[in-house]
Amino acid sequence: MIWPIDLAILTLVVVAAIGALRVKDLLGASILFGSYSFMMCLLWSIMGAVDVAFTEASVGAGVSTVLFVAAVFRTSRRTRD
Amino acid sequence: MTDLISMVVAKYNYWIYITLMMIGLYAIIAKNNLVKKIVGMNIFQTAIILFYVSIGVKKGATIPILEHGHGPDAHHVVHAVDYINPLPHVLMLTAIVVGVATLGVALALAIRVYNNYNTLEEDEILAQIREK
Amino acid sequence: MKIIGLIITVVTGALLFYAAGDFPAWSDPASPASTYLSPHFIEKTMEETSVPNIVTAVLADYRSFDTMFETAVIFSAGVVCFFLLRISRREDEEPETRYYRHVLTGVTIQLKEGHKMPPSADFERIDSMWTPPDLIIKTGCRLLIPFVQLFGLYVIAHGHHSPGGGFQGGVILGASVILLAISHDLRTAVRRMSEKLIGILCAAGVLIYACTGALCLLLKLNFLDYSALAGILHVDPITARSHGILMVEIGVGIAVLATMIWIYNNISSAGRYRQGL
């Protein structure tokens, strides 16, 4: 495991998580959550958990982002926090 | 002092996992919007999965797929230290897929709430319930 | 509420930070998690099941009872989404005017006061907010979908030797149908894969899994002990375990594929199945 890459991706994960929770638009939050999931997938492939990384890439970054966008489309983009 | 610094540096991954978990927990409790709460729930979940996967990591080991499984040199002794611990991977693989299923249920509930109250904000929903 | 949340978070975090000091060192081969059971799995998987991918072997053979109920959880999540959101045809008020579009020329006709068009291949029903899909996106996705589906089948079938298996392959197959629903519209996807078919597939996946287990029981071995299948498949018991893993992976794949499409259909149309995203 190469620690500078690991540390950089861990920082990006935290930034994406805080960004997804702080942005004042739910569509933006769902897209940022998709990027968070993809960063998580990179982290797992660094750790050698290839099966878990594959699952997260298809499930977390793929389907759950689509589900979030669909739900936001059916409700509203407005949020106060 | 150097002991403390070396301990902090040696386990930096664990500190970041705990930070992620705290972010998720705070979002579940304190956020006002239902979709934001669901995002927080997923962040909490992935932080725990990250912790589980990280306990399986071994120094100097490779991914848990056996080399030369079939073929001419198939019969050789496998040493456990050469491969990463596969057990946490198995547990977490199913947890991720079950996670997206529960995410679907949570979003379906959020859509039902929106259809009834026309808002996703928790305090506005509570105010509408009190008026009735 | 924010202050209470902050206090709870900080207290939990402080406890965890305190406990993290006692964790085994990072990437330690002698940590408790990698010493008791996992060496057995790593060293014996090849002789006992002849599957090189240890994760697949543990998932579908050693821990197959657990995975069966994980599949059941996914199935029930699909059913819950259906019951929460689906609006039945009786409750759903049909719109007064219906729109039909001639497929070849793109001419749209409007029928008022609940008149219906006789079913014909030349016309397709569209919604009032229908917008024509972009040509580039439509053609690009049409070209892409067969390859996505082929890759999904490869992932299910090759899960023994490379990363992959029923869960990942099922999600990829489901995503290909979701891609069709996004790039065209929901009606197109539902025409290809009707709601009834999705429901049947969803249950059939779990049933395939459980039936494989019950078959082993009928052949006088334990539930989900695939070496019992050796007599039927005419192979030795070790290869039979490898084939049994493939059977349950196919079941998992079908269940996950159907559930993903079901959840997406219900959420994207809020249970009306009229127009998607």
What does this molecule look like?
The complex is a heterotrimer of chains A (about 80), B (about 130) and C (about 280). Chain A contains three helices and no strands. By secondary structure, chain A is mainly α. Chain A has one domain (about 25-80). The model of chain A has no long low-confidence stretch (mean pLDDT about 90). In chain B, about 70% of the residues lie in helices and about 0% in strands. In chain B, helix 2 packs antiparallel against helix 3. Chain B has one domain: Helix Hairpins (Orthogonal Bundle). By secondary structure, chain B is an all-alpha fold. The mean pLDDT of chain B is about 90. Chain C is about 60% helix and about 5% strand. Chain C has helices at about 1-20, 40-50, 55-60, 65-85, 135-155, 165-185, 185-190, 195-220, 230-235, 235-270, and strands at about 100, 110, 125. In chain C, a hairpin with a 5-residue loop joins strand 1 and strand 2 (about 110). Chains B and C meet through helix 2 and helix 4 of B and helix 1, helix 2, helix 3, helix 4 and helix 10 of C.
Explain briefly what this protein structure is:
The complex is a heterotrimer of chains A (81), B (132) and C (277). Chain A is mainly alpha-helical and 81 residues long. Chain A contains three helices and no strands.
Number of helix segments of chain C? 10
Number of helices of chain B: 5
Compressed to H and E, one letter per element, the order of chain B equals: HHHHH
Task: State the shape of chain C.
Answer: globular
**Secondary structure: helix percent of chain B:** 55-70%
Largest sheet of chain B: none
Topology:
The complex is a heterotrimer of chains A (81), B (132) and C (277).
Chain A: H1 3-22, H2 26-47, H3 50-74
Helix pairs in contact in A: 1-2, 2-3
Chain B: H1 2-10, H2 12-30, H3 34-55, H4 87-117, H5 122-131
Helix pairs in contact in B: 2-3, 3-4
Chain C: H1 2-20, H2 38-49, H3 54-62, H4 64-85, E1 98-102, E2 108-111, E3 123-126, H5 135-157, H6 166-183, H7 186-192, H8 195-218, H9 230-233, H10 237-268
Antiparallel strand pairs in C: 1-2, 1-3
Brief descriptors of the model:
heterotrimer; B: 132 residues; mainly alpha; Helix Hairpins; 69% helix; 0% strand; C: 277 residues; 61% helix; globular
